[in-house]
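Entry 14. Structure prediction run on the chain below.
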Amino acid sequence: MKKLFFYKRKTYVPKKDEEGKETSEREVVWMEDSFNPDYVIRSMGFTNGIAVLLDDGHEMSEEEPVRNKKSGAIEYQRKRAYHQSEIHLEDPNDIERFKLLSIY
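Output returned:
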């Protein structure tokens, strides 16, 4: 496998009560993800971390609501859109490790 940069991604999941049922409250869970640093186009700093843009562009089909001019009904039209992955690094340790990758 090629080299990968592993990082922690923050996500929110529903809390469970004593019976194991989901509640309306959310709790933070850290997941471990990875990306190939060779595909990094650029990174941008924000107050809460760094956004990393990857060169892994691909087209996706999306359904877009469109109003029918004659009947006024809502119909869905399939549209193709170009997407690129954007990674958000929030953990301070991940940010420092990522910065070290670019030092020559």
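DSSP finds one helix and seven strands in the chain.
Filed with the rest of this week's runs.
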